[in-house]
Amino acid sequence: MTETVISVSNLVKSYSDLKAVDDISFSINKGEVFSLLGPNGAGKTTTVEILEGVRNRTSGDVRVLGQDPERSKSLIYKLGILPQDFSFIYNSTPKEALNFYKRTLRASTDLDEILTMVDLSDKGSTPFQKMSGGQKQKLGLALSMVNDPEILFLDEPTSGLDPRARRNIWNVIKTLKAKGKSILLTTHYLEEAELLADRVAIMNKGEIIDSGTPMEIIERHHEDDRLIIRGDGEVSALLTTGGYKFEREGAYIKINMKNIKDATQIINYLYERKAKFEDFTLKRESLEDVFVRMVGEIEEDEAE
Amino acid sequence: MKPSRVSAYFILHAKSYMRSRSALFFQIAFPVILILLFGAIFSGSSYSPSTLIVQNESPSAISWEVVDAINSSGLFKVQVIGANQNISDYINSHSIQAALLIPSNFTTNYAYGYGLLILKGHTNPTVASADYQTINGILTQLNFKASNASEKLILSSQVALGNSGKTINFYVPGLIGFTVLSTMFNMVYTVPNYRRERLFRQLSFSGLTKSEWITANMLFSFLMLVLSDIVLVAIGIFVFGASLTLNIETILASALIIFGGLVFFTSVGILAGLVSDNEETVSVVGNLVMFPMMFLSGVFFPLNFAPAYLVTISKFLPLTYFINSLISVLDYGNISAVTLQIVWLLLGSAILFAVAVKLFSWKQK
Question: Span A18-36, mean pLDDT?
């Protein structure tokens, strides 16, 4: 039986007239990577901060490891938190920061191992203010792991990082997942969520507009798959003759398909007629394509 | 409150602080510079007579006798200018504070019983007034001599028991007060800065509580204050010859006063820092609180000569009592006279600390 580590029921957070979080409910299971997705101002960080106990809720019920984060003082020992816009005392070094966390959280972790894991072993004595953005973010991630937490809250962990640093953090998250840690990940990068998350919830304007595995969400909201062929006018003529509808953009011919199996039929048709095309690609809609359309549709509906 | 968490933050803060050049400058170097400056200016080891411009429009034996008496007093170095010069123009063109005119009818009038001298002042009335008092004293001596009268009332100064009467004795407690007051300014900047950078949120993830953070800060500040104040006292004694009453009782009483002041002013700093997250706003608030206290509580000069209304205002400033207590303990070795003040200081500090902890929130607004 799956064990629920976080449960959120009818959570509301209001600031006078504004509802930053509007009656949302979800749960996260032990060992699961759950991702909250949404545009800026969707209410992701507010939700996460309520779960961390940093912010008080207006109404609804929240349980983290069976405790109310607003009241529990012992919960912090079981959580690892990397907040958005992580910052630390300017003149402190990573080793000092990690030692401080180790002492206050009564942890027994090997700090050198953590520094190596986040690729900061050679920066242990560098003052925080002299570290790069990526190194600072890695320190934040390292601090969230000091107490070997049961749940990690990672709020935009790769925001503003270069591709190499981002991949490094992805590897750390994969390692944590392999160790059975439950992770709540908020991110702007849909590719990141698709790669790391077991389940996602898409938030917009304080509400959850859909949730499920990335594949389930893509299946529910995706439109046509697309076959893209690089070919000349002869290919276009053959496709017209065969009754296929397509669009041409420069050297590329784009054909929308209801079923991805139709691609085999089209390619065979062109081979049989010895059509000269250089290559072809098959493009399925990604979580990002679906997300942009979902959020965009809501905004268009409201504009109307 | 967990001592292990307090000590963990104390160590983190101490290591970070030691890397901050500006913090070390203001904590250690700045008070040292101040005591060296004030000590040098007011050490009183030698007196440099000021130049007094004299124009004698009535040259005679008696007029030159007056000029000689002023010159030989050692208080002025007389410089005589020609009678053909316009003394007012001379004052303006040479930026002189005051000049003495012996008018053309002086000798004649002196023969009839009264010789009038005129001290012409310029921009600084305080200097002109001091010159007037000094010259008047010299002339009084001349009058006594001229009338063959003897002085029946003579004022002499004598050092009171346990106090050398040196100005530096006043500045040591005053500058200790300044170092304690500066802890308030640290907090005025730290609180909004930490909130803006979301460092309180980050620290809360370590399990540290706000009262533990304040306590660790205060303990570290106390340690730094003790160090910087030891340096101040040592310079006062060994460089400028301050004669302070230092024994176990006065040292402990001073430490208690400094700790009380630290808690009081740190709490004021926290409350002032809560006003806004904007650096400019808190700077204004901090200066509004700090500057009146710095100048009206006797840090840099005693208020004995200040107008009555300023003395009344100073009685409402907590730093006044802090410095008076320190002066009483360190200069006079008199703890019993200020016991009640110390008790009030500690009581006020405890109340203000409780208010600051209550109002100071780590939660995101």
Answer: 94
